[in-house]
Structures are given as C-alpha cells and as structure tokens.
Amino acid sequence: MKVSLAEARAYAITAQQLAGPREQPAGRKELRALVERLGVVQIDSVNVLVRSHYLPAFSRLGPYDTADLDRLAHRAPRALFEYWGHEASLLPVDLQPLFRWRMARAKLHAWGHIKRMITEKPEVVAQVFAAVRDRAPVSAGEIEVGAAKAKKGWWEWSDAKSAIEWLFWSGQVTSAARRGFERLYDLPERVLPKRVIDTPTPSDADAHIALIERSARAIGVGTINDLRDYYRLKPGDAKPAVEALVERGVLVPITVEGWKQPAYRHRAARAVRPPKERGALLSPFDSLIWFRERTERLFGMKFRLEIYTPGPKRVHGYYVLPFLLGDALVARVDLKADRQAGVLRVQASHAEPHADKRKTATALAGELARMARWLGLATVVVERRGDLARELGRAI
C-alpha cells in the first residue's frame, strides 16, 4: 500500500488530535481522554512561557484550567502518573504495568553518579528509601543523607538526589505531588490505584507489543524508528513487537512518498484533512514533532532546540514553538510570558519558505491572542526580529 506525503501528514495530525474542532469548555473529562489518546505527555523544567506539559492540551483543546491537569496527575482518583515514558512524562495510570520491565532493567542502564551510588553507597539508597517510606510526601532536598551537592550545576546532584532518582527510575518510589516544579515522593502502593498495583506484570515481550501498538495509535503512520521513539524502546525490543503486530493485522505495512524506510499504519488510523484555518502553537516537546527526523520527513521543517545554544549563535530563538496551520508547519515563534508586565512577548518570528506570510501572520496573530488570554496576559508584543515580524506586528 502506497501513501502520499499529504496523506501521511493527515494520518499523523488526526492521530495526534490536531485535526478536529477544539472542545469548549475543556474540563477534566476532556483532558483525561486526550492524554489517554496521546499515551504520553512530556514534562520539561523550562518555564519561560509555561511548563511544557500544559501546552499539548492547549494546542488541541484550546484554553483550559491547568489545575485540572494537576488534579488528574496528583490527586485521587489518580488518572495519570509520572515516569520515564518518552523522557520525563505524564502517562495514563493504566500503563504503569507496561513499564515495569524498564524499572526492572534500570540497574543495567544506570549512568554516572547514579551508577556509583547504587554500587558504592547502597546504604545511602536504603536510607533515602526509608525516609520516603516514613516521611512521605517528601522532596529530595528534604532528605539529608550522604554527601551534599559537590558543586554548582544543573546535573550536579547530591547523594540524596541521585539515590531518589534511582529509586524513581527503578519504580521503588513514585511522584505523589509537586510543590511548584519540585517533585514530592511516596511509595507506589500509597499513590497508585490498587487495581493498577494488583495488575499482573506482563512479560517484557507483551509489554513491548502493547507499547508499540499504543505508539502506532498515537502517530498514525511511522517507520520502526518512529514507533520505538515514542516510548524510547530499544531496536531489539521494538522489531519483534512490530513483526508480531503485523502478523496480527494490527499494523499494515505501507510505503510513504519520499521516505526511504518501510512504514506501518495502524489498522484503526484515519486521515482527516484539518481545516486550512485550524492553527496550533506546538510546544518544542510536543509529541507531533519531538522526533526531529520524523518532523523533517513529514513537514519539511528542520527543527532544533536552541535553549543550550549561546544567544548570539541562535537562529530562531530560545524557546521556539512551531506553528501548525492546517496540515503544514508554516512558522516558528520565540515566545516569553512577561508576567510582571502582563505581556506575551514574541521575541522572534520566522516564516517557513513555503508559507504565505500574510495568511500565516493573520492566523498566528489569532492564536497568540488566544494563548495570551489563556495565560492571563493582557497584550501581545511583537519584537522586530525575524522575517515574519513585520507582517505579524501588523496583524496583531
């Protein structure tokens, strides 16, 4: 079966819930259904605009109360839980048994300070576990065990932080809540629903098959690399899972126009061309675009995160959101929520080569105004950087 590139985009956008009308108003029911459909929402610490895990629902459902997403993740009856799904992620709570293989393998893939911690200081790990058991909910910073942070730096952890990250990775503790962005820990049996805890652990092979099937539902069409990247599966785990799903008829082998690698379509996938005026600002960690090589294959956009690039060397900006209009990525904007001034700042705006700048600017202006209202910001200010800035300023 051969699929055109336009059809592949339609499959992807439909599977990612970006083709239909926005729900108004969006409440916990709609949020829960969305995360269940996506299967994973990535968490990131950068807060120059808004925490990244809040953006996918805005892109798909429109304005909503972010406290509703927090309640789904951190209050009973808990619908979501935190774990390493793609990266640090929010996941539907019923997927927890499907990640127990990753928890069991954690020691095999430990790195750096964590590896030294579990091999050289097991007594510290035991003391940190006891602190969580006895004092939960508790943060890593509230546990004074072992050596303190050796030096300044984002990835320079104390012994307690390294131990608790290991315990989290191996599934011995979980996230009970967050204080600001600080994670508070507790034991899984005191946080997760009893039905989840009591669910038998599937075999590794069955878990991988289930996760690849979820990936396929969420992306519509993709290569093996696309499918395995969604939940960061290893090639040796993904390949037999894909083969099993093809044999069962769940995945349909296809070829996609312009793609060098074989691809697969989920048998339930549908391709709905989104309305041409349907716009969405996408988090740089959005599941439609987080696999950059796939983004380029589907949309022709070379998208790179420039947060860690020195300012003078940045091409598009610090925190850049691609703008999806209809079935095309037509622009990218570097956004900042200036909360003190009540302003959504467009620090740079660039159009893609194929985009009609006037139409793009008009649609983008409306989406930026919608985002500003959602964030409680009074105005949108467009700074004169980028080839779309003049048109966008006029549209605003």
Query: Helix segment count?
Result: 16
Structural class category: alpha+beta
- What string gives the helices and strands in order? EHHEHHEEHHHHEEHHHEHHEEEHEEEHEH
Question: Mean of residue pLDDT?
Answer: 95
Helical amount: 25-40%
Over all CA atoms, what is the radius of gyration? 22 Å
Strand content: 15-25%
**Strand segment tally:** 14
Q: Give unreliable regions as ranges.
A: none
Largest sheet: 5 strands, mixed
**What strand line-up does the widest sheet have?**
10-11-12-13-14
Write down the overall geometry: globular
Distance between the termini: 45 Å
Written account of the structure:
This protein is of the alpha+beta class. The chain has 16 helices and 14 strands. A five-stranded mixed β-sheet has the order 10-11-12-13-14. It is globular. The termini are far apart. The mean pLDDT is 95.
Protein traits:
five-stranded mixed sheet; four-stranded mixed sheet; 396 residues
Short summary of the structure?
By secondary structure, this protein is α+β, with helices and mostly antiparallel strands. 39% of the residues lie in helices and 18% in strands. The chain has a five-stranded mixed beta sheet with strand order 10-11-12-13-14.
